[in-house]
Amino acid sequence: MSTIDFAPLFRSTIGFDRIAGMLENSRRLAALDAWPPYDIARVGENDYRITVVTAGFAPEDLSVTQEANALVVSGTRKAETGGEYLHRGIVDRGFQRRFDLADHVRVTGARLEHGLLTIELHRDLPEALKPRQIEIARSPAPRQIEADRRAA
Question: Which of 7, 33, 35, 46 is close enough to 123 for a disulfide, judged by CB 3.0 to 4.6 Å?
């Protein structure tokens, strides 16, 4: 595994200290964190959708929790009894998957259809944080400055 130096990315940023840790953690956990599979899609300017494969899980077996800037999706299946398995290819284990969320992102809904858990998210950017045009004041004309100096 190669080492990546993220220092050049942070030379012109302020207050993004948490991102360096997230990048480092994601690099370490990439190989360990492969189940269950999921998709993240941007479906609008401020809308996102996470789809997690949860085949075999009932709605009561799943939990979706938002904690500050984290979304935690977990599932617990009860072990099936009855019969001797000749082949066991369907994963029968619980899981917990954590997603880091940006500020002002909130979960707007979740649904389970055809073995897929779909979680809808929306980013509500406060008016104070939206881009705004800054008016640039004009300096007095050079003749006005000379007139002010003579008057003094």
Answer: 46
- Residue 40: half-sphere exposure toward Cβ, Cα within 13 Å: 8
| DSSP secondary structure, 75-107, as one string | E-PPPP-SS--S---S----EEEEEE--TTEEE
Tokens standing for residue 25: 């953690």
Helix (H) or strand (E) holding 27, with range, is helix 17-29
In degrees to the nearest 10, what's the CA dihedral of 11, 15, 18, 19? -50
Residue partners of 138: CB distance under 8 A and separation at least 6: none
Report the alpha-carbon distance of residue 138 to residue 60 in Å, rounded.
64
Q: What is the pLDDT of residues 30-81, one digit of tens each?
A: 555 678 999 999 999 999 999 999 988 999 999 999 988 899 999 998 777 6
Strand 38-42 and strand 70-75: pairing?
Answer: unpaired
The domains located in the chain, with CATH, are 1-33 (no CATH), 35-126 (2.60.40.790)
In angstroms, rounded to a whole number, what is the distance separating the alpha carbons of residues 34 and 37?
A: 6
